[in-house]
Write a structure and sequence with these properties.
Elements: H1 4-17, H2 22-25, H3 29-32, H4 36-54, H5 56-62, H6 64-77, H7 92-98, H8 107-123, H9 132-136, E1 149-150, E2 155-161, H10 164-171, E3 183-191, E4 198-202, H11 204-214, H12 219-228, H13 234-247, E5 251-252
Antiparallel strand pairs: 1-5, 2-3, 3-4
Length: 254
């Protein structure tokens, strides 16, 4: 008889290959043959369900059959290595980007990016938002060195297509036909100030300033970055960004 560790390794191999052969288990084959079929089917079915949950809009855009074929290909190349299947699919965008032919339209890759960013923002740590009163209490002389911190949920994703209207319609299961996405490189901001995620596009200058804040840049550093972008009146632009971020609940309270 095999040791428990050997039996577990063979069992895992059979599930990953979806192929039970008695010789894999030698003397144990007859004992396992009756029940292993359940596991052979359940492994991919459970991981496919996790991908459907993590990429709901992509799944609706592709349809059940096409998404299931995509899921099988992904599972074969990237089997789960997490204890929790919540994070299964973390390489799906990379997987699709490496072989664009897997998708019938290139804009679907951006739907996948938005799906994953929304789920990541939703599961991010909670944090109290910085308020106008908090900002008013900060002495003006302290502003330059202040390191305003975005919410932990903030995601900045580069999109090549204007997929937001399509994503919104499919996410709501709307039957209203939306226009075909137009190619439009831009940055999308996604964050969760409370229970629901918010999102909007951002100009390159604003996105660069927010990205700098995620890397612990000071307010003065952000003003310099904005000035270097060629924006007129950079100080006023920086102040305007700050006011908007506070109104939107995008910055975290220390």
């Amino acid at each position: 008889m095999s040791t428990l560790a050997e039996l577990q390794q063979r069992f895992q191999k059979a599930i990953l290959l979806e192929n039970f052969t008695p010789d894999l288990f030698a003397a144990e084959g007859a004992l396992l043959a009756g029940g292993i079929g359940v596991y052979l089917q359940a492994y991919r079915a459970r991981l496919t369900a996790a991908l459907r949950d993590n990429f709901p809009v992509l799944q609706r855009a592709l349809g059940d059959d096409a998404f299931d074929l995509l899921a099988r290909a992904y599972i074969d190349e990237h089997p789960s290595h997490f204890r929790s299947i919540r994070w299964f699919g973390h390489r799906l965008v990379e997987f699709l980007d490496a072989a664009p032919g897997r998708l019938p339209h290139p804009a679907l890759l951006d739907l996948a990016r938005m799906d994953w960013a929304m789920r990541t923002a939703f599961d991010a740590a909670d944090a109290a938002a910085l308020t106008r009163d908090d900002l008013a209490a900060l002495p003006l002389q302290d502003w330059p060195l202040r390191r305003f911190r975005p919410l932990p949920s903030l995601q900045l994703i580069d999109l090549a297509w204007r997929v937001e209207p399509v994503w919104k319609a499919l996410n709501a299961n709307s039957e209203v036909a939306s226009e075909e996405p137009q190619r439009l490189p831009h940055v999308l901001l996604i964050w969760r100030p409370a229970l629901d995620c918010c999102w909007r596009s951002a100009e390159a200058c604003e996105a660069a300033a927010l990205q700098a804040l995620t890397q612990a840049a000071s307010f003065a550093d952000c003003c310099t970055l904005i000035a270097e972008s060629g924006v007129p009146e950079p100080a006023q632009t920086a102040a305007g960004f700050l006011q908007r971020w506070i109104t939107e609940g995008l910055l975290a309270k220390d």
